[in-house]
Hints:
The protein is of the alpha/beta class.
Amino acid sequence: xxxxxxxxxxxxxxxxxxxxxxxxxxxxxxxxxxxxxxxxxxxxxxxxxxxxxxxxxxxxxxxxxxxxxxxxxxxxxxxxxxxxxxxxxxxxxxxxxxxxxxxxxxxxxxxxxxxxxxxxxxxxxxxxxxxxxxxxxxxxxxxxxxxxxxxxxxxxxxxxxxxxxxxxxxxxxxxxxxxxxxxxxxxxxxxxxxxxxxxxxxxxxxxxxxxxxxxxxxxxxxxxxxxxxxxxxxxxxxxxxxxxxxxxxxxxxxxxxxxxxxxxxxxxxxxxxxxxxxxxxxxxxxxxxxxxxxxxxxxxxxxxxxxxxxxxxxxxxxxxxxxxxxxxxxxxxxxxxxxxxxxxxxxxxxxxxxxxxxxxxxxxxxxxxxxxxxxxxxxxxxxxxxxxxxxxxxxxxxxxx
Length: 401
């Protein structure tokens, strides 16, 4: 009799514990005090300059935690080095999922790298949010149902704007393209093809390079010989600087468009020679803290204060830190919207229902929007031109979709 009573009481206790236990199991990487998230970054290797993105994001969550975290929980961002090598990205991501048990992967950098981990993350039911790549394929919901593109305009959309702009000036324009031999480079060719259609084959001459190549001089000479009057540089900073320099040295002066991942003045325009880059066109979607137009802007002032306090060793001319601030702020908005339900299902629901989110370091008028059928947070850009000292924006916001 007493035994039955005791069992009944125990049964009631275990029944009461059940929902909590299953909810805890469902909310991986989450405790009453913490939300654990992970990422990989190229802190070493050929593009270690891009590691600035991770340093800025780590700084942002440090600031956020000092202010009380999100809904009472601190956010622990575990940021691991993958040297920009996809096999290492896979290894480090497995560690984040299986050892650190993170709730989600956030802002890992690189197109090949995010591709390499996507299927694995899907099999483990881990969201892959605001990934640091502008490759349009990550907007394909069939292939990447649990991913959102980053807080950056897609490369393919950017190339469409370049093609439209060039054709508005000369409808018979011939294009030369230097591109990285991977998904990043191929996206620019796809964007040109979207606009040129059946004229593409006759209008475009392309050359590629590998990230391990020491120089691309021979490719630039070949492209000049094509007689093209428009030059699209779809390259990361080191090769972009080489392309600008070499075309200038051989006296080739086409209308030139530069991928917006390579617009840094200190690492691209100055090494190439500012006189060589004067007049080059690109696009922007974030505020450039060096642009005098933002001298008294409240958003830029707040960003500078954040940088000075939480990433004091950083170069404040490096716009990677602006991207870091935007990405972290976007994730903060998603996690806040989750309330206390930090299950994978609800994290994804909130990530795919962002409405008109305005971030203080995006250009005015650009808002973040996502939906279950639209995983592209940013699709607008503004043209800008390098004047030998800085980038000057011109014209209205353009939509690349």
